[in-house]
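Incident review: delayed structure delivery

Summary: a single-chain prediction request sat in the queue longer than the usual turnaround. Root cause was a stuck worker, restarted by the on-call engineer. No data loss occurred. The affected request and its eventual output are reproduced below so the record is complete for anyone auditing the incident later.

Affected input:
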Amino acid sequence: MNVLNETDARLDHIPDCLKGSTIVSLPKGTRVFQSGDVCEQFFYLLKGVVRVDLISLSGKAIMLYRVGSDQTCVLNTSCLLSGNDYCAEAHIEEDVEACIISHSEFEAKLNHSAEFRRLVFLSFSERLASMMSKIEEVAFVPIDTRLAARVLQLQNTSPTIKVTHDELATDLGTAREVISRKLAQWEKLGLIERGRGILKILNEKKLQNLAIGEN
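Output delivered after worker restart:
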């Protein structure tokens, strides 16, 4: 993890087994690691969001998972345990504060702290289960259902959503062309209105039906 800024802030919810560790502050857009990087530090998010993507040889990306507050990164943990380099890349989606410890500290805490072992392996198992669910979703859930659910998830108080076709394709593990075709169909049906980098929901009820697999 490339540390850009170190902060003296200490948040109350730091686990006891990580108190005294270095706390870093990293801004949105920072690349945390990329494929081929050596894994040298363990990190635990206190706040913010890190997105982890698998990149194909052709340059296409599929989102594996997001790491949020009070979570660890399963790939980070796996690489530290195995000694392997990273095989994916991660970027910060929301400004991050995180605890970090060195590889040697990670191994020492695993050997001597039951609390740290629980923290690492509970988060590892939860993230692995989430990844299996993602694979099942991509393999078996129709794209209409997944796309409708994602669009509704991105909606806040406004029906207008800032998102690109590329971002939706990466989130859902499909091609940009598939997303563009589906959104064009929805626009013709009056479900949405498309703009440059934005979508406007016109028929939320219909999208909700699609999101639960109803036509």
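Verification: The CA atoms of residues 3 and 24 lie 6 Å apart.
Action items: add queue-age alerting; document worker restart procedure.
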